[in-house]
């Protein structure tokens, strides 16, 4: 047994040296996973690049992994992808003039709804228009008639 | 009945909004969600150097076709739609002055060569993109796809999917003639 000890130690040291590398790998995979969760697979458009088994997704995951392993940032990877595949690859579209209506639309609708609600609620509950002189005279006559009937 | 106040037009707004949304949704239903625009239109075609399928020791680069209008056709022997468009490509290859380069994506070279030997070879050259890196550079997300590239190396058009004889007659050939003029 003792004869194998050096070999065993050597094997262990090899494993120990590999441990930090494995931690790096895990961190890299975690970053890759976080990034690809927000990216669309353009073949099966309702799946993320993280989940899809399409050949394109497999290829792009490989590229993304290689770029991250080379020390490139998430933003650089996203630039690389949108340059080639356009903004559609992002599930969250960037804010630019082309998407202002998309991002601002809900706010605009909310503002329009608020204005409408405010306008309608400002009006008095019983908003009857003022009587013209002929109507006023008729009302007065009816009231007068009512009064005389009461007295009899 | 005459309106009782000046703001009654506001009541029509929800209806107009609803009709507007209805129009947007109906319009959206008729669009093909896979017909994505290429981000390369009007920009210089990405450069690459890849080994040729017929002579792997030699390479092809888009710079070699400066001054010519050419098609970059992404294909593979395993791709059924490529087989469908093959006769149309054979016809396009007859067009004067037009070069067709095949980007053979993720294929087994022997299978690709066997297919061309059997079905005919419309390509000036085919090049091997075995890991699809060049396809990714071109933003290819399906096979086949075809790019029209002008004399200055600018991408003018990208065709998604199989080229039908009608596509060749009504879209590609008029564009190629216009660029060649």
Automatic annotation (TrEMBL), chain A:
Source species: Aquitalea aquatica
Signal peptide segment: 1-23
Top-rank taxon: Bacteria
A cellular-component GO term for this protein: plasma membrane
Keyword Iron: yes
Record protein name field: Cytochrome c-type biogenesis protein
Record family assignment: Belongs to the CcmH/CycL/Ccl2/NrfF family.
CDD domains documented for this protein: CcmH_N (cd16378)
The entry's keywords: Cytochrome c-type biogenesis, Heme, Iron, Metal-binding, Signal
Domain CcmH/CycL/Ccl2/NrfF N-terminal residue range list: 8-143
UniProt xrefs under InterPro entries: C-type_cytochrome_biogenesis (IPR051263), CcmH/CycL/Ccl2/NrfF_N (IPR005616), CcmH/CycL/NrfF/Ccl2_sf (IPR038297)
MF GO annotations: metal ion binding
Record flagged with keyword Heme: yes
Function: Possible subunit of a heme lyase.
Pfam family of the protein (one): CcmH
Any GO BP annotation: cytochrome complex assembly
Automatic annotation (TrEMBL), chain B:
Places the protein is found: Cell envelope
Protein name as catalogued: DsbE family thiol:disulfide interchange protein
Family that this chain belongs to: Belongs to the thioredoxin family. DsbE subfamily.
UniProt GO MF annotations: disulfide oxidoreductase activity
InterPro entries the UniProt entry points to: Periplasmic_diS_OxRdtase_DsbE (IPR004799), Redoxin (IPR013740), Thioredoxin-like_sf (IPR036249), Thioredoxin_CS (IPR017937), Thioredoxin_domain (IPR013766), Thioredoxin_ResA/DsbE_sf (IPR050553)
Domain of life: Bacteria
Organism listed in the record: Aquitalea aquatica
Gene3D superfamilies, alphabetized: Glutaredoxin
Residue ranges occupied by any Thioredoxin domain in the UniProt entry: 39-181
Record keywords, A-Z: Cytochrome c-type biogenesis, Disulfide bond, Redox-active center
GO biological process, one term: cytochrome complex assembly
Entries under SUPFAM superfamilies matching the protein: Thioredoxin-like
Gene Ontology CC annotations of this record: outer membrane-bounded periplasmic space
Principal place of residence: other
Pfam assignment, any one: Redoxin
């Amino acid at each position: 047994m003792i004869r194998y000890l050096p070999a065993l130690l050597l094997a262990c040291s090899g494993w120990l040296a590999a441990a930090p590398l494995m931690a790096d790998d895990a961190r890299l995979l975690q970053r890759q996973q976080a990034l690809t969760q927000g990216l669309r697979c353009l073949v099966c458009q309702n799946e993320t690049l993280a989940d899809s088994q399409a050949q394109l997704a497999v290829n792009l995951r490989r590229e993304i992994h290689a770029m991250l392993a080379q020390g490139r940032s998430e933003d650089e990877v996203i630039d690389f992808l949108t340059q080639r595949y356009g903004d559609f690859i992002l599930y969250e579209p960037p804010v630019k003039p082309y998407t202002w209506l998309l991002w601002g639309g809900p706010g605009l609708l909310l503002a329009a709804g608020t204005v409408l609600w405010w306008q309608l609620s400002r009006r008095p509950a019983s908003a009857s228009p003022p009587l013209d002189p002929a109507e006023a005279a008729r009302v007065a006559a009816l009231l007068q008639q009512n009064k005389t009937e009461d007295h009899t | 009945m005459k309106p009782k106040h000046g703001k009654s037009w506001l009541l029509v707004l929800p209806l107009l909004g609803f009709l507007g949304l209805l129009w947007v949704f109906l319009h959206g239903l008729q669009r093909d969600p896979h017909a994505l625009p290429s981000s390369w239109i009007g920009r210089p075609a990405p450069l690459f150097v890849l080994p040729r399928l017929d002579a792997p020791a030699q390479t092809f680069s888009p710079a070699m076709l400066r001054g010519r209008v050419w098609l970059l056709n992404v294909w593979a022997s395993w791709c059924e739609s490529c087989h469908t468009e093959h006769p149309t490509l054979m016809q396009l290859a007859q067009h004067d002055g037009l070069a067709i380069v095949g980007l053979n994506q993720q294929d087994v070279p022997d299978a690709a060569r066997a297919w061309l030997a059997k079905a005919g070879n419309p390509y000036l050259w085919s090049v091997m993109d075995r890991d699809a890196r060049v396809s990714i550079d071109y933003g290819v997300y399906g096979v086949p796809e075809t790019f029209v590239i002008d004399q200055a190396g600018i991408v003018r058009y990208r065709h998604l999917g199989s080229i039908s004889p009608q596509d060749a007659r009504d879209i590609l050939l008029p564009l190629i003639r216009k660029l060649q003029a």
